[in-house]
């Protein structure tokens, strides 16, 4: 039997009236189907820094994010760990267990995250009564694969500054953050996501702040100039009123935490 994630403030899911129904894993289920099965679906909170599940564990459920931000982490032999994806509102976690596999990654909450836990047994039961549930699950799986491809393209090419701009843009989109109050991950997490050193990320973040593209409001909370999303971050910076210094900016890598 697979693990069950310890969640806080657990309630029973109300899928029929869920505002994320069109994005959720069970979007193909009818109200009559849900009335039979939602007794075993849980909704609850995973706190910032909590491990939702670990790579290699045998899972009994998949998860939908209602609110929050989750990182998927993989171990790299001889090189520690690497964040492979960020997931936000409406995303599904752990779909690989539907095929009988263990969880492929470790999932860790980067913010207090509201999750719906959907047991594999419930999906199997719903699918037996309604083929649209199976189609909905496959559609969601395809959505997640498309999102993964987009993430690789956005964060895997361009300058470090452009990749950081892409990361900020991604977070505003998947979390629904306003551009005047974006909560960013730690410097170490951003470095892992964009494939740079923490020192390099700190330096480029300092350049974005110096150019007025990012304004720090509180620890990890920033206001973003919408021009950051209108083209390459490098072009936006070059048009900034105050040009950047040509020499590197020395910034303590902990100063953005």
UniProtKB/TrEMBL annotation:
Residues annotated as domain Cyclic nucleotide-binding: 25-94
Region (Disordered), start-end ranges: 236-257
Gene3D superfamilies noted in UniProt: Jelly Rolls, Winged helix-like DNA-binding domain superfamily/Winged helix DNA-binding domain
UniProt GO BP: regulation of DNA-templated transcription
A single GO molecular function term of this UniProt record: kinase activity
Superkingdom of this protein's organism: Bacteria
InterPro entries in UniProt: cNMP-bd_dom, cNMP-bd_dom_sf, HTH_CRP, RmlC-like_jellyroll, WH-like_DNA-bd_sf, WH_DNA-bd_sf
Entry keywords, A to Z: DNA-binding, Kinase, Transcription, Transcription regulation, Transferase
CDD domains assigned to the protein according to its UniProt record, in alphabetical order: CAP_ED
This protein's name: cAMP-binding domain of CRP or a regulatory subunit of cAMP-dependent protein kinases
Source organism: Thiocapsa roseopersicina
């Amino acid at each position: 039997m697979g693990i069950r994630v310890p969640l806080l403030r657990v309630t029973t899911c109300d899928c029929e009236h869920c505002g994320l129904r069109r994005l959720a894993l069970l979007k193909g289920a009818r109200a009559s189907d849900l009335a039979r099965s939602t007794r075993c679906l849980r909704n609850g909170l995973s706190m910032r820094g909590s491990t939702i599940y670990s790579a290699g564990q045998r899972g009994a459920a998949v998860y939908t994010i209602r609110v929050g931000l989750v990182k998927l982490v993989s171990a790299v032999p001889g090189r520690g760990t690497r964040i492979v994806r960020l997931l936000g509102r409406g995303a599904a976690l752990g779909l690989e267990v539907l095929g009988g596999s263990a969880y492929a990654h470790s999932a860790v909450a980067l913010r207090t995250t509201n999750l719906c836990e959907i047991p594999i047994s419930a999906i199997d039961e719903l699918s037996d009564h309604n083929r649209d549930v199976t189609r909905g699950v496959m559609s969601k799986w395809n959505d997640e694969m498309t999102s993964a491809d987009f993430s690789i393209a956005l964060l895997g090419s361009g300058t470090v500054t452009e990749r950081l701009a892409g990361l900020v843009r991604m977070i505003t989109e998947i979390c629904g953050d306003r551009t005047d109050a974006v909560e960013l991950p730690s410097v170490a997490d951003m470095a892992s996501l964009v494939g740079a050193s923490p020192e390099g990320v700190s330096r480029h973040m300092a350049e974005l702040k110096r150019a007025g593209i990012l304004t720090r409001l509180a620890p990890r909370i920033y206001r973003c100039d919408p021009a950051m999303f209108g083209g390459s971050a490098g072009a936006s910076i070059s048009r900034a009123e105050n040009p950047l210094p040509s020499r590197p900016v020395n910034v303590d890598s902990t100063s953005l935490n």
